[in-house]
Amino acid sequence: MVVKERELRAALDRLQRPPALVVTDSQAFLKVAADVPLDVPMTTFSILFARLKGDLNEFVRGARSVDRLRPKDRILVLEACTHHPIGEDIGRIKIPRWLRQYTGVELEFEHLQGHDFPADLTPYKLVIHCGSCMLNRREVISRILRCREAGCRSPTTES
User: Fold this and answer.
1) Beta strand 108-113 with 74-79: parallel, antiparallel or unpaired?
2) What is the pLDDT along the chain (159 residues), one digit of tens a residue?
3) d(C-alpha 69, C-alpha 51), whole Å
4) What pTM was computed for the model?
5) Maximum CA pair distance of the chain?
């Protein structure tokens, strides 16, 4: 069943039994989580793609490295799709804002799109990558390995 987030509660109420899993866009995660019963597993499209195309354990290790970020650390944000960012874009606005709030320090962000990937990753403490719906597994794994070799971590974003 596919519904808009504003239709979710009514759709769940119409079901005779709860769904086995709810999958949502990360932009709607909080709204959807508020409507989904606590005993129903929930995830995002980006997490599913990260697991399918990447190395979810490596992404988790990268996410844990956020606590070690220091003022002026450089973070690379990679978005595989080439859409034009709009409004409260998650990669360009929301994640940088959240990281600054969470860490309490000023961080430097660089953004690349599509197949662009820098030859030198050593300036970056962290690489944040989208869920990679536009890339194949080989390219994502290659990016993870290059990040690991350069000494930076690579968590996936929710896009």
Assistant:
1) parallel
2) 999 999 999 999 999 999 999 999 888 999 999 999 999 999 998 889 888 998 888 888 888 999 999 999 999 999 888 777 676 778 888 899 999 999 999 999 999 988 899 999 999 999 998 878 888 999 999 999 999 888 886 555 443
3) 25
4) 0.81
5) 54
Nearest-5° Cα angle at 115, 92 to 75: 40
Beta strands in 1-159 (DSSP E): 22-24, 42-44, 74-79, 108-113, 124-129
The dihedral formed by the CA atoms of 53, 57, 61 and 63, expressed in degrees to the nearest 10 = 50
Per-residue DSSP letter, 75:
E
Interatomic CA distance for residues 121 and 124, integer angstroms: 6
Amino acid in position 8: L
No. of H helices and E strands in the chain? 6, 5
